[in-house]
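User: Can you write out an input/output pair for a complex, sequences first and structure second?

Assistant: Here is one pair. Inputs:
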Amino acid sequence: MKPWQLIQKEICYRKTGFGIGLLCVAIAIASLTGALTLLRVYETRTSEILEERERETRAEMDRLENDYRRIMRDLGHNVMILHEDQSRSALRTVGHPDTFMPADYVYQLGHGGIETLNHLLPVLQQRVTWPEQEMDVILMGTPGQVPVFHLTRFLTEDGESYRNPIFRAIPEGKIEIGHAIATDLGLRPGDTITLMGESFEVHRVNRAQGSEEDIMLWCNLDVAQRWLDREDQINIIFALECICDIEGLGAITDEISAILPDVQVLEFSSRVIARGEARQRAEQESRRAIAAELAHRTQMSDELRGFATILVPVVLAASGLWIFFLILGNVRERESEIGILRAIGVKESVIAGIFLGKAIGMGLVGALIGYVAGVLAGALGGGGVAHGSVWGQFNLTLLAVALLVAVVLCAAAGWVPAMLAAQRDPADMLRGD
Amino acid sequence: MTEILKLERVSKTYRPPGRSAVAALDQIELSVAAGTFKVVCGHSGSGKSTLLLSAGGLQKPDAGHVLVKGTDVYRLSSEKRARFRAETMGYVFQQFHLIPYLNILENVMAPSLALTGDVAQLEQRARAMIKQFGVEQRLDHPPSELSIGERQRVALARALVNEPALLLADEPTGNLDERNSEIVIQHLRDFASRGGAVLMATHDMRIEADEKLLLENGRLELFAK
């Protein structure tokens, strides 16, 4: 017969005492694993909520971005790049820039890795008289929006053009007209007009802006260059500034100058600021909401942790004491048995091992029960069920911790009674006769 | 004949706190040879149990030496003494001290907890002992289902399963009726006749033995031979 067989048979014989011990260990371990699981579930849920909020913020920012894109399209671009020799007073008096730049400049900007702009629109602009109508108009020739090529999130899959450009290229044989021109001449989309001796279909009538834009005629850049005899030339690059940090206004000039040294940059700062402020405010609100949620959940988590920090050691200590008295009672109950075992030559270490082995066995089985109960309770309490993650809370590390704590707890609680059993004077126990 | 147990000037005095000292054993000289059955008589509290516990290496005397097969048992370390007890001695007590959650076979085999020998051989001997003591029908019964006499016979089987040289029996018939007492005494005599040494403590002066000694006031005197 081996000592473990003796332990096993004694446990079967005194089931109630062992059951109470198991319950005690299970409660202690359940409180530990339950608290740890609850905290982990809570923190996982916090991460999920915050990620959800982040996603919502990103979606909101994307939605705002689209709104701004539409608004800015309607407001017009907020940055204008001109040749450095262009006189600003002449710009006002003449009504259009009278110095020109190579059309290639816009592509140099597009490939220059510029960070402060995200929409580029090269234009050849000139105030002319529409000979067929004897009407002063501003001719605007453009090839459409040129990408900032490193901003791949805005580009189509081939990386060559914008996914959703603010200003699309004017199709060949078509023309876009300002609101005042359309009103004066009674034109609507689909009508045909004659300009410089060529026929064009009215592609679109722009909304009333109450500005010079109402007398603009938008055509393809090639057509304008041909009419104005400005082959491969433009005189304006419109751009949309993407600075979100209002303090960063002005950085754009430095950045553009580094790529195109012989240009000047005009920023319509009020538009930039309005755009930046609105966007910043929306982002700040979202961040504030996320921070408030995080703070609330962190506070709750801290309170739970604080509660667990007190509760778990108290339960462990109480359980340890309970196990101590149970094993001590078991030693007293088995004095006769200990005496006879000593008399027949069983060593003190084996007798101590019988009691310690029982305590450790109680710890191992109790830990398994407590682990399952604690994890289930923690997962249910933390709302793990709602997210289908109850089974995900069972993990080997926590099980190992539970087993280790239970074994150490039971071994510590059982140590003194086991030593008492081993060192009791057998004569005292047998002299009862 | 070979001397199995020898007590030399063994003394033991109890000094309970706050009460006067009691000399349980006073300069005891005793020897038990192989093949002899010796009985120590005395009234309750005369020191019989102390004498047997000291002789069995379970209670160190204040003075004197206890030699079992020539070995001074109290010069051995606790662990070695336990091993020596397991290999050399057997005990029977008035209260039997059977382990309640083990069946009869397991109780008789309990000494295997202290031994490293062939367990199968020990089990074979245990079964033979159980048969010899007439409780073979109760092999898988717990002690609580046995009569008092059967329990003492099981305790005797447990004491002898190891084939000890010395058997120490402390009031083994104290709880038994006359018939069961006779059976137990007969088994002790049989053990002695097979070459074992038996030292039995009892208050029953009628029991016949090779030598009867009277323990009184801590002193041992020859009572009958």
